């Protein structure tokens, strides 16, 4: 019996895969007693491997999505730890337009990572975002021209519409 070949997600579909990975990871996390950042990140890896084994993504796609989700969670947690600000400020967009379920899942995951970051008090490097990657909801700022890219749900990062820039950082509400 041969293993099914993975369903190919078009670039736009990778956002759906990101959201699915977040959802499945948080469902598994609810069953855990200890919910630290490293445990959550290991759970993300395990869940992405399961998605790959089911043939929904290739191993490479699952690994990329896993890295994107962990990057976003570290960035959100670092921001909340350093500023003491609410998760909604990190998003820098109106949370009314984000599905309640997705918002709650991401917030729970970021809170777990925040707890670990607070313990480690790591000097938080600002995460870099690049065209071709997937990001969660929020606003990215083009490093080249300062243009804002708004994401109301997980999705593919396109080149900057204003200057075709390919490097971004997350914009935070002050």
List the SSEs and their pairings.
Elements: H1 14-29, H2 37-53, H3 59-83, H4 87-91, H5 100-120, E1 129-130, E2 134-135, E3 138-142, E4 148-151, E5 155-156, E6 167-170
Antiparallel strand pairs: 1-6, 2-5, 3-4, 3-6
Write a brief structural summary.
The protein is of the alpha+beta class and 174 residues long. 48% of the residues lie in helices and 11% in strands. The chain has a domain at 11-126.
Residues in helix, %: 40-55%
Report how far the terminal alpha carbons are from each other. Answer: 56 Å
Low-confidence stretches: 1-10, 120-125
Q: Tell the overall outline.
A: globular
Outline the biggest β-sheet: 4 strands, antiparallel
Give the tally of β-strands. 6
Task: Give a written overview of the molecule.
The chain is α+β, with helices and mostly antiparallel strands and 174 residues long. It has a domain at 11-126. It has 5 helices and 6 strands, in the order αααααββββββ. Strands 1-6-3-4 form a 4-stranded antiparallel beta sheet, with no helix packed on it. A two-stranded antiparallel sheet has the order 2-5. Strand 3 (138-142) and strand 4 form a beta hairpin. Mean pLDDT is 76; it is low at 1-10 and 120-125.
């Amino acid at each position: 019996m041969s293993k099914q070949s993975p369903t190919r997600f078009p670039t736009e579909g990778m956002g759906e895969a990101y959201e699915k990975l977040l959802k499945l990871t948080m469902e598994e996390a609810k069953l855990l007693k200890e919910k630290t950042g490293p445990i959550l990140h290991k759970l993300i890896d395990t869940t992405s491997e399961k998605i790959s084994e089911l043939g929904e993504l290739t191993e490479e796609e699952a690994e990329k999505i896993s890295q994107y989700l962990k990057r976003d969670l570290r960035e959100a947690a670092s921001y909340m730890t350093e500023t003491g600000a609410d998760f909604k400020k990190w998003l820098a967009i109106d949370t009314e337009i984000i599905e309640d379920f997705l918002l709650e899942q991401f917030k729970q995951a970021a809170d777990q990572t925040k707890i670990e970051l607070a313990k480690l008090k790591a000097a938080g490097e600002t995460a870099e975002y690049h065209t071709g990657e997937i990001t969660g909801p929020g606003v990215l700022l083009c490093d080249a021209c300062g243009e804002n890219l708004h994401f109301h749900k997980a999705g593919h990062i396109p080149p900057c519409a204003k200057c075709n820039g390919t490097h971004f950082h997350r914009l935070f509400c002050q």
